[in-house]
């Protein structure tokens, strides 16, 4: 049985709008509708979509914060909203834009409080804390009140906080938002190691598609509250009709390069941009260009996944 | 089952201990806040005492008798406010998304909300009310039953205010910002019960008995302690009903709380 099982899930909100003095009009908004997917233990899944697509609403239902309007929902065999506190022991949640830590307390106190809340045995707690503090390089910050931490330090603190009780599932909502490149890289490395060593299942919502590329074998794209794509990242490229780009620097300025299987998109002096299908091999193309022209340099640009998804949305809508 | 009941209490204790430790790590600011809170509260009863320099009785009750009423309701709301005062901030928790965080923790939400940022600062109110209460004690002709009724009164009074705090804070699940509405009933109820109910019209006394049973916080048990019958003519057995009133209010409060949590719709991401 899958670890997360969602079938025909729906959640509606009643939205009241002002319609003149003291009058309100009501309308029903479907934040999530007819959503179906399942996730096996140990998977790392990217959950992406535009703002307002229903990502956060889904996560809130999966964690038991929101009660679904209708549909089936099982996480680790439990019904989240009814067995919320039982489920809470088995999941970790990180909301990137908010902290779970106590603002006025040093990190160490927050962690101790969480140990009590989750009833983590002393020895296990110390092992986990030591390990995460080392991996996430938090040693110097343990006695600093959370409000004095930098965003990156706070995020690492939040991730440690979400993992102290050895959850089977870790939900990450925009974990790298606002972090610098180095912090992002370190965080991704840490999450990969976590999945490899402990088999923790990861569900990640993000706007940073590099997070997805670095971490997720599988992507679920959601739009207007329902899943519009579920599969591999490569498949997403293919479906979105995405292309890769071969950048060719010729020795001299020349006419547009003419080779089969690629077309020239742009010419700028000796440099030319050729696009070709993302699922085609670059090797024959490179060989064809090199044999017919005097080439100074070559490079390949991977498709921008943002474009791919935009493409997908416009097809779906 | 025992575990289900004990665990939340133990968890509440753990969290409260941590907040106290954090608070005491700034001893000077803590001491100043407690003294300040005591001074504000002290002036409160002084105003009533000054009133008595020009009158002998109020609604048929003397100063010490009123001190008894004042002390009983003050200790009650003080204990409730100290123990679970944070429940008033539920609207803030909803707005800031803190409630979402709490909902992902394996401890009942009410325990987390009540213990969040626990502060001993509120002890000022209990101290002041206790002083007034102790000063009033000689007015009672003490018997073992009256001692028992007095102890039960203080427990029920705390419990009843606990229920009122929770009940009216729940409104914020729907409106997200109406802590003043809750204050009207909790602190308002406290102010009403600082005076003998005989100063109000009979209808008010009945409403405070049967609709919002705040009169059980001190009025009925104090009538027993003072050996009086109800001036409004209600039966004497009501004087022993404070624990029932507290239980009723808490039951309603917990039901409304549960409904509020289930209807909770969270905020945007």
TrEMBL record, chain A:
Keyword check for Transmembrane helix: no
Main location group: membrane
Membrane topology: Peripheral membrane protein
PROSITE patterns the record matches: ABC_TRANSPORTER_2
InterPro entries for the chain: AAA+_ATPase, ABC_transporter-like_ATP-bd, ABC_transporter_ATP-binding, P-loop_NTPase
Residues annotated as transmembrane: none
Segment forming the signal sequence: none
Pfam families to which the protein is assigned, alphabetical: ABC_tran (PF00005)
Ranges where the ABC transporter domain occurs: 15-249
Keyword annotations from UniProtKB, A to Z: Antibiotic resistance, ATP-binding, Nucleotide-binding, Transport
Highest taxon of source: Bacteria
Subcellular location: Cell membrane
Molecular function in Gene Ontology: ATP binding
SMART domains: AAA
Entry-linked PANTHER family: ABC TRANSPORTER ATP-BINDING PROTEIN, ABC-TRANSPORT PROTEIN, ATP-BINDING COMPONENT
Annotated protein name in UniProt: ATP-binding cassette domain-containing protein
Organism: Nocardioides astragali
Automatic annotation (TrEMBL), chain B:
Taxonomic lineage of the native organism: Bacteria, Bacillati, Actinomycetota, Actinomycetes, Propionibacteriales
One Pfam family matching this protein: ABC2_membrane_6
Transmembrane segments: 30-55, 67-87, 147-174, 204-225, 237-257
InterPro entries referenced in this protein's UniProt entry, alphabetically: ABC-2_transporter-like
Record has Transmembrane as a keyword: yes
Keyword Transmembrane helix among record annotations: yes
Protein name: ABC transporter permease
Keywords: Membrane, Transmembrane, Transmembrane helix
């Amino acid at each position: 049985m899958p670890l997360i099982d969602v079938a025909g899930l729906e959640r509606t909100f009643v939205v009241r709008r002002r319609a003149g003095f003291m009058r309100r009009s009501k309308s029903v908004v479907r934040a999530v509708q007819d959503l179906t997917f399942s996730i096996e233990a140990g998977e790392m899944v990217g959950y992406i979509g535009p703002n307002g697509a229903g990502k956060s609403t889904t996560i809130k239902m999966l964690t038991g914060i929101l009660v679904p309007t209708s549909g089936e929902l099982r996480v680790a065999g439990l019904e989240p909203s009814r067995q919320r506190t039982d489920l809470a022991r088995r999941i970790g949640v990180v909301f990137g834009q908010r902290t779970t830590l106590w603002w006025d307390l040093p990190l160490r106190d927050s962690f101790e409080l969480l140990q009590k809340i989750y009833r983590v045995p002393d020895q296990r707690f110390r092992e986990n804390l030591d390990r995460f503090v080392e991996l996430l390089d938090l040693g110097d910050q343990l006695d600093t009140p959370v409000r004095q931490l930098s965003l990156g330090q706070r995020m690492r603190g939040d991730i440690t906080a979400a993992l102290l009780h050895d959850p089977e599932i870790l939900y990450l909502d925009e974990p790298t938002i606002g972090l610098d490149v180095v912090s992002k890289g370190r965080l991704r490395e840490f999450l990969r190691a976590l999945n490899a060593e402990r088999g923790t299942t990861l569900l990640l919502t993000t706007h940073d598609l590099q997070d997805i590329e670095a971490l997720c074998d599988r992507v679920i794209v959601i739009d207007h509250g329902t899943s519009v794509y579920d599969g591999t990242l490569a498949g997403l490229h293919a479906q979105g009709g995405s292309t890769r780009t071969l950048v060719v620097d010729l020795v001299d300025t020349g006419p547009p390069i003419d080779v089969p299987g690629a077309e020239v998109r742009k010419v700028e002096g000796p440099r030319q941009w050729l696009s070709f299908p993302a699922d085609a091999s670059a090797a024959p193309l490179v060989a064809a260009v090199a044999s017919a022209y005097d080439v100074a340099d070559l490079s390949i640009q991977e498709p921008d996944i943002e474009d791919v998804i935009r493409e997908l949305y416009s097809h779906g809508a | 089952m025992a575990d289900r009941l004990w665990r939340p209490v133990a968890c509440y204790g753990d969290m409260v201990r941590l907040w106290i430790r954090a608070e005491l790590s700034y001893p000077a600011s803590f001491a100043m806040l407690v003294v300040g809170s005591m001074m504000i509260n002290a002036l409160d009863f002084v105003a009533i005492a000054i009133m008595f320099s020009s009158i002998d009785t109020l609604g048929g009750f003397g100063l010490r008798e009123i001190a008894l009423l004042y002390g009983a309701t003050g200790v009650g709301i003080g204990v409730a406010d100290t123990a679970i005062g944070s429940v008033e901030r539920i609207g803030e928790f909803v707005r800031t998304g803190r409630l979402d965080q709490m909902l992902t923790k394996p401890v009942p939400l009410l325990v987390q909300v009540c213990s969040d940022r626990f502060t001993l600062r509120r002890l000022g109110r209990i101290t002041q009310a206790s002083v007034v209460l102790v000063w009033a004690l000689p007015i009672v002709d003490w018997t073992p039953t009256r001692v028992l009724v007095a102890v039960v009164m203080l427990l029920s009074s705390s419990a009843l205010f606990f229920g009122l705090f929770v009940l009216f804070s729940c409104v914020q699940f729907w409106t997200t910002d109406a802590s003043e509405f809750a204050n009207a009933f909790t602190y308002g109820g406290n102010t009403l019960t600082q005076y003998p109910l005989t100063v109000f019209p009979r209808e008010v006394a009945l409403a405070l008995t049967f609709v919002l049973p705040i009169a059980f916080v001190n009025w009925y048990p104090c009538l027993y302690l003072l050996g009086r019958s109800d001036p409004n003519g209600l039966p004497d057995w009501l004087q022993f009903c404070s624990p029932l009133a507290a239980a009723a209010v808490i039951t309603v409060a917990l039901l409304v709380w549960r409904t509020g949590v289930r209807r909770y719709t969270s905020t945007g991401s």
